[in-house]
Amino acid sequence: MIPISVFESVLRNALSPIAPFLDDESVTEIAINGPGEIFIERKGQLSRTDASFTSVDSLLSALRVVAQYMGRPLDEMHPILEARIPDGSRLEAVLAPIAPDGPAVSIRRFSKDRLTLAKLLQFGALTEDSVDLLKVLIECKQNIVVAGGTGSGKTSLLNALSSLIPKGERLIVIEDARELQLQRDHVVQLEARPPDAKGKGAVTIRDIFKASLRMRPDRIVLGEIRGGEALDLIQAMTSGHGGCLTTVHATYPSDTLNRLETLALMGGVDLPLHALRMQLASAVDIVVQTARLRDGRRRVTHISEVLGTDNNYGYRISDLFVCRTARPRSDGSVPVEFLPTGALPGCMDVIQAHGLSIPSSMYNAATAGAPGRSQ
Predict the structure, then answer these.
(1) Rounded to two decimals, what is the model's pTM?
(2) Is 65 helix (H, G, I), strand (E, B) or coil?
(3) 288 burial via Cβ count (<10 Å: 0-12, 13-18, 19+)
(4) Strands (DSSP E) along 95-215, which ranges?
(5) Position 3 confidence tier, pLDDT thresholds 50, 70, 90
(6) CA quadruple 279, 144, 173, 3: dihedral sign
(7) Which of 45, 41, 228, 225 is nearest to 148 (CA)?
(8) Coil, strand or helix: which one is 358?
(9) Pairing of strands 104-108, 245-249
(10) What are the structural domains, with CATH classification, of the chain?
(11) Spacing of C-alpha 129 from chain mean position
């Protein structure tokens, strides 16, 4: 058995062309488009570097070390690699034949310093009133989906929101590859396993999810919904497992529900569409939408409540907080405000039953006649 320290040393040497970026805390993404084309992201902006690998073989060699370190196959029959390198960064690599111009690699880096809600407030990603609302919703065990595009800060926000979960609760975290660093003590981390080179030994998100229901979870946190496990989560949400949190790729609150609907249909269950929509609308309580603005900043753009379906089984969504932007300034920055819409949560009876209250600014907006927005 080769010691992990040896693997890490070999991998560090193999990745030496990008080692300076792996050591740079300001770098959030490393994109490798073949051996001679390497980009990095800082503050949401991509720039090309002078770094390069000596050849395709040297880049492939580094990727094979990663695959061996993770115990995953990597060859022409298995040209996609999802892995986590020793410093915790997430690596996604695609090889020939599906990448004919050479290996394409993306390394998502996560800060060693946990991103807290205090820091998000400092960065302007949220406001104090919106955090107060989210705290109330989480304490009331509303099921929350954090949605957004690639690189919009979904995982970081979910990590920060975990600090609002009441202490003493048991959290079961399920992920494809471990990324979440929940800010609570009683956390059970579970991770899916892909099949080996012979196609055996796979443990899917769905397998783990079903097992987690018998592990006495107070809350289930699903790192990201990408397939049929959406149906399992919906069923859990509607059968007494409140307070679930997850992320999904979507660009707008209404798109989030449509995306979850599509993923649930991948679960292989023959369920009428109207029945699925009613279950989904009953399961998901809140959508927290994130986005990356044109100036590279990541922020929350919507906190929206799902109110069920209408007579035609369309989703009824009420925006509680909305981000409003103005024209970019001369320096490229985008002025934004994150304000209550005037709509009050439909779950007010649940909030009051817990002895909690929403921010006064929401009442003020409602009294002032701010246009509550429904989708």
Answers:
(1) 0.83
(2) helix
(3) buried
(4) 104-108, 144-148, 171-175, 187-191
(5) low
(6) positive
(7) 225
(8) coil
(9) unpaired
(10) 4-108 (3.30.450.90), 117-374 (3.40.50.300)
(11) 23
